[in-house]
């Protein structure tokens, strides 16, 4: 007996139902286990205007450091190690005053850091604002 080979039905079909079941089970698993955070926003409205006038700001003690290593405290030349004493004299007159260090572009960073550390160690408010760079 001779067998007939039917080549037309050799194409296999893929059953998609089990794959869809797995996808839906994974989807449900991730939805159940996911944590949704409630993020809080920042209030960007400015505070209301105060009817009181602000107090007079304290004078700033200006410490200039130039590129030759000279230090000036309120336009008075001072040794870099004696800046704290000079600042303390000015703060004796007005204890609320803060220090602004204004180094020139080519100033020695070690001197600036020394002054900064002295002010921070003694609880004196200090900030640094470099002088404008002069184009040559």
From TrEMBL:
It is found in: Cell membrane. Keywords: Cell membrane, Membrane, Protein transport, Transmembrane, Transmembrane helix, Transport. It comes from the Bacteria. Pfam families: ExbD. The chain crosses the membrane at residues 20-37. It is a single-pass membrane protein; Single-pass type II membrane protein. PANTHER family: BIOPOLYMER TRANSPORT PROTEIN EXBD2, EXBD MEMBRANE COMPONENT OF PMF-DRIVEN MACROMOLECULE IMPORT SYSTEM. This is ExbD/TolR family protein.
